[in-house]
Specification:
The protein is α/β, with parallel strands linked by helices. 40% of the residues lie in helices and 25% in strands. It contains twelve helices and ten strands. Bound molecules: adenosine-5'-triphosphate and magnesium ion (MG).
Length: 270
């Protein structure tokens, strides 16, 4: 009986479902601000699949950062549903959300590293979420982590090409190198999803390309990436899919080649 019900459509739907990392269904996010209620996202529905490299573009205030925060459950939608690997987030306790959040790595424009600590120490801090603060802080103060953790740190430092800089304080590195440290710190948690919020906004073109290349390499090894970008050309060059937001709504969601100059103009029109 079961056999009979396994139509090609059902099998296809199941395959898609298992490859799904996060989905948003009719998501709306409103913030209460001093100026009243601000609608940051409206009716956003999209599905992120394993192995995708999605760029999110749009003018300032379009809702890009809010979208990223929804994807790692830092912001819960006012309306609609966010599901992470098929689990609906709104019914979870905060501790369960935190567990899910640990499966995502986050990189920011101003990388949020601790300037007075070394590269290695900053990357080790990426493990704090796994163990809880006190246990990690204890290991950190004693300078002792498990051999496995130290190996994980070595391998991401090598992967990001900053191993020889491991004992240098991060405030002595270039902006591009610092951004690599931020990527390494996110990667040491072995995330299933990497979220990058304008990771190249404060870098010159050469450094920016370098960071984007690194993200592409990680994506080619199977990591799912969502990256907020201001620069449409960079988005088209590096991603497998582009989502364009304007006033909190999705104006475009598709392959980079389908993003025509007309759509682009609509997205960024003043
Ligand atoms: N914590 C908050 N409280 C109130 N309003 C907020 C908050 N965070 C964002 N907003 C508002 O929500 C809207 C979307 O903001 P968001 O930061 O997601 O945009 P963005 O596309 O990332 O912009 P940018 O390109 O400038 O980073 C904006 O109108 C913003 O003012
Ligand atoms: Mg933003």
């Amino acid at each position: 009986m079961f056999e009979e019900r396994r139509t090609p459509e059902l099998i296809e739907a199941f395959a898609r479902r298992t490859r799904e990392v996060v989905s948003l269904s009719h998501v709306g996010v409103s913030y209460n601000s001093t100026a009243g209620v601000v609608s940051a996202l409206t009716e956003v529905s999209t599905q992120l699949m394993e192995g995708e490299f999605v760029s999110v573009i749009g003018p300032s205030g379009a809702g890009k950062s809010t979208l990223l925060r929804c994807l790692n459950l830092l912001v819960m939608p006012t309306t609609g549903v966010v599901s992470f690997k098929g689990i609906e987030a709104q019914n979870l306790r905060e501790s369960e959300r935190r567990k899910i959040r640990r499966q995502t790595g986050m990189i920011f424009q101003r990388h949020q590293l601790l300037a007075r600590f070394t590269v290695r120490q900053n990357v080790l801090m990426g493990l704090f979420g796994r163990y809880g603060f006190w246990q990690s802080a204890f290991g950190f103060v004693r300078g002792r982590f498990s051999r496995e953790d130290e190996q994980a740190v070595d391998s991401v430092l090598l992967e990001l090409g900053i191993h020889e800089k491991q004992h240098v304080r991060v405030d002595q590195l270039s902006g591009g190198q610092q951004q690599r440290v931020a990527i390494a710190r996110a990667m040491v948690q072995s995330p299933v999803l990497l979220l990058a919020d304008e990771p190249i906004a404060s870098l010159d073109e050469g450094r920016a390309n370098d960071v984007m290349h690194k993200l592409r390499e990680l994506n080619q090894k199977g990591l799912t990436i969502v990256c907020n970008l201001h620069d449409v050309e960079v988005a088209k060059k590096y991603s497998s899919r582009v989502i364009a937001l304007r006033h909190g709504r999705v104006l475009f969601d598709g392959i980079p080649d389908a993003l025509t100059p007309e759509i682009r103009e609509m997205v960024f029109a003043l």
